[in-house]
Amino acid sequence: MNKIELFKKLHESDELLVLGNAWDLPSARVFEKAGFKAIGTTSWGIAASLGYADGEAIEFELQLSVIQRIVDNVQIPVTADIESGYGHNDETILSNVLKVANLGASGINIEDSMKGATGLKQLSDQCHLLTKIRGALDNNGFVHFFINARIDAYLLNLDPLNETLTRLKAYVESGASGIFVPGLKHEEEIKTIASCTSAPLNVMALPGLADCDKLKKLGVRRLSLGGALYRKTATLLEQCALEMLDSRDTSILFE
Fold first, then answer.
1. pLDDT digits (tens, 9 = 90+) for 25-43
2. What is this structure's pTM?
C-alpha cells in the first residue's frame, strides 16, 4: 500500500485521525517520532516561521519547498495546506495541486474563502474547480489523492450551518474526498453536519474542542491542530527570552 492509499485508509479507520500540523522538517519529525500516523502542513505556521503573514503572502514555490523537505524526510503520509490554491485562475491552481502530488504528498486542503477579498467563492466556481482538480489528479495517476475541501463559512460567520450543509454536499459531488470545517465547535452542529455526509468530517482543535473521544462520538473523522502548536511554541520562546533578560539568569533553559 502506498502512502496515498494509506492516507485514504486512515480516514476509514474506527480511530479518529489526529493530524500533526508541521511548519518545517524538525516539527514534522517530532510528530512522526511521537507516533502520529500522518502529518499536515500548516500554511499559517510555514508563513510565520519564514516571516510572512498568512493568506498566500508567501510565494508558492517557497511554500512548496517546505512541503517537499517534509515529504522527502518522513515515512508517514503528508497532506499539504495550500490555502485557496495560490492562483488567480483555475489553470494555475491545477498546476500547483499537481506539483504537490508529484512531490509525493498524499493530499491537500483547499479552501473556499477569497484571497484579497471578503467572503466565500461562488459555490458554482468552487465546485467547478474541485471537479477539475479531481479530474487532473485521476488523469495523472493520483486516483486516491485526498482532496480535503475546506468550508470557511464558520470562520467568516456567513449563515454558517446552512451554508456549510449546502456546500458540503456540492463539494463531495464535485470530487472532494473529505470536508474540513474550521471554526465549527458546537456539538449539535457537529453532529448535524457529520450526519449529512458520508465523507470524512475534519474539524480544527479549539479551546473546548479538544477531546478526541468525544469528537469521534459526534461523527468527526479527522482533527487538525492548525497553527496552534506553532503559536504555543512561539509563545514559549518569547516567554523564555523575556524571563532570561529580566532575571539575568539562563537557568530556565535547563529546567
1. 999 999 999 999 999 999 9
2. 0.96
Task: Provide the domain limits for residue 163.
Answer: 3-227
CB 38 within 8 A of CB 5: no
**Number of domains within the chain:** 1
What distance in Å separates the CA atoms of residue 204 and residue 183, rounded to the nearest whole number?
Answer: 7
Report pLDDT digits (tens) over 198-245: 999 999 999 999 999 999 999 999 999 999 999 999 999 999 999 999
Q: Is residue 59 part of a domain?
A: yes
- Return the C-alpha cell found at 153: 463559512
Contact 210, 169 (CB under 8 A): no
CA end-to-end distance (rounded Å), the chain: 44
